[in-house]
Amino acid sequence: MNRKVKVFFAVLVLSSLVPTFASAATYTVVKGDSLYTIGQLFGTTSSNIMNQNGLKSTVIHPGQKLNVSADVYTVQKGDSLYLIAKKYGISLYSLRKANGKWDDLIYVGQNLIIPGQAAKTGSVGATATNKGVIPYTQSDLDLLARLITAEANNQPYTAKVAVGAVVVNRVKDSRFPNTISGVIYEKSYGYYQFTPVQNGMINKPASQDAIKAAYDALNGVDPTKGALYFFDNSATNKWLWSKPLALRSGDMVYVY
How many independent structural domains does the chain possess? Predict the structure, then answer.
């Protein structure tokens, strides 16, 4: 076999192994999105998105399709969302967010949008540290989301974020453990601080809303503005009720 034929054969083989990419993709707007946050996700600006889509104003609505500049990855055998995110050095959350994909089911041949540089928060392994208002790992995010699910699954989204914010606020407060797992699994006078740890509900999978709420809390969203405690409004603990009120949302009460 001559050299030219060998080179052609090598290129042919390699091309069959490399997933298909494109320079443009379509993102579906969800509740809470803005052109600014979408721009952050895809490493661009609101103005660029407006120009790409011929928008006359910044007003967008859930379900709207927007053209964005992004690579599109075609799922291969053996892939997982975690492995794809790791391959591109982006957070698992940003990959989920870009594709509206909050479960782990993917199939060979499926196209996934790869968000841009602005979405990167470092590698996404269980022990890799992400930068929010406090450092956290993917395991921390999952644990916090599971607590939110157990404590506030049937409550408004604000209440879910507030549960996450209470944990974040405790991590930042010197009177509590300085890690997410330390706060959630803390015992005081022989009792766990959070009932789901005691009854095992903490071990159930997190809901999609809880994952998003955990991510918001870890990135500084705090509807309580600093609360350190929360409880159900049917609670009879006088000590808790005596504390200054921070927020009421659904059946949940948050205090300082």
Answer: 2
